[in-house]
Write a structure and sequence with these properties.
mainly beta; Methylamine Dehydrogenase, Chain H; four-stranded antiparallel β-sheet; 28 strands; globular
Length: 359
């Protein structure tokens, strides 16, 4: 394939799929109009439900979300010319329903979360980008008030803070955010602190603001977003505000999913599965609080995941149950989403990652 044009970005999409079907698709995103063009379709990995790229965009890592057995985490090389992927190696995830994966800024360690088995694991990353065997894993224990969803621990993400010192793990089953200190010398996760959320909230994903000391959690079960002040010196979170992810008059079934902040730091976006929308809030850059802007339909069903381009120009929503990725333009002045008319068909898309252009 040809080298990327100046107006193109690479987009990687993970899907729920058997290993004999396409699990990861690579697209070119035209940043003039938001259209997506298929670059590569990759088989050989079952349910690659979450992806992450290393800092310089030369390696991609995908977890395999398997409910009945331990999953895997797989590394791929990224072709610097056209973004195509080639298998590098894989390791056991040491748990069931692996649902999240992330790297530290130096791409020396990888952390993943196993939803069903209730544990997290830490891996060393070798010089060539391949993964060593797990160096540490931690089992969560307990439950919370929702017998149908919180009968046991269910960590749903593992997010490394801006300092690189701590890992924050929202556990939907415990209504807690577990905080671990990263011990890089010994490749260990050291228990550091925990934050209790509202009972029944079901914390799912977390994002740190890039310029002010605040973090934002989207709560899957009670469909809210909670603002926390963040004390970077000791890795502590303190609740500031909780706002609804749904319109007040919506009473049908809904569970929340993903959360992101615009590159400008001015706007926060969260996805609703059921209402099938993206909620938009404006961020106060003094006290971190949120002010409602709008809800926008994702033009599909079950937006499990979405991504924003590095320049903040577009938002790509992955509609799992209508098999589509829909491109929206972002108004830079208001944060509002505008339909572009650009949609691409992908079977059960559940993760979208957009690569930054090389400097």
């Amino acid at each position: 394939m040809n080298q990327l044009n100046e107006n193109e970005l690479l987009v990687y999409v993970g899907s729920y799929a058997p290993s004999t079907s396409v699990g990861i698709n690579v697209f070119r995103l035209n940043t003039d109009n938001g259209s997506l063009t298929l670059q590569q379709s990759l088989e050989g990995i079952e349910n690659p439900s979450f992806l992450t790229l290393n800092h310089n965009q030369t390696r991609l890592y995908a977890v395999s979300e398997i409910g009945a057995a331990d999953g895997t985490v797989t590394s791929y090389t990224v072709n610097p010319q056209d973004g195509r992927l080639d298998f590098l190696n894989e390791q056991s995830s040491l748990g069931k329903a692996t649902c999240y994966v992330t790297l530290d800024d130096d791409s020396s360690c990888l952390v993943l979360a196993n939803y069903t088995s209730g544990n997290i694991a830490l891996y060393p990353v070798k010089n060539d980008g391949s993964l060593g065997e797990a160096a540490d894993h931690v089992q969560h224990k307990g439950s919370s008030i929702r017998a149908d969803r919180q009968e046991a621990a269910h960590p749903h993400a593992a997010v490394i803070d801006p300092s690189g010192r701590y890992v924050f793990v929202p556990d939907l089953g415990l209504d807690q955010i577990k905080i671990y200190q990263m011990d890089y010398e010994h490749t260990r996760l050291l228990p550091h602190n925990e934050v209790l959320t509202k009972p029944g909230a079901g914390p799912r994903h977390l994002v740190f603001h890039t310029s002010i000391p605040y973090a934002y959690i989207i709560n899957e079960l009670d469909c809210t977003i909670t603002v926390y002040s963040y004390a970077i010196e000791d890795g502590a979170l303190h609740p500031v505000q909780t706002v609804p992810a749904l319109p007040n008059d919506f009473t049908e079934f809904n569970i929340c999913a993903d959360i992101h902040i615009s590159p400008s730091g001015n706007y926060l976006y969260g996805s609703n599965r059921g209402h099938n929308s993206i909620v938009v809030y404006e961020i106060n850059k003094i006290d971190g609080t949120l002010t409602y802007v709008e809800h926008t339909s994702t033009l599909g069903l079950t937006p499990r995941n979405f991504a924003i381009t590095p320049d903040g120009g577009f938002l790509l929503a992955a509609n799992q149950d209508s098999n589509s990725i829909v491109t929206f333009a972002i108004d830079q002045q208001s944060g509002r989403l505008r339909e572009t008319g650009q949609t691409v068909t992908v079977a059960k898309p559940v993760c979208v990652k957009i690569a930054k252009r090389p400097n």
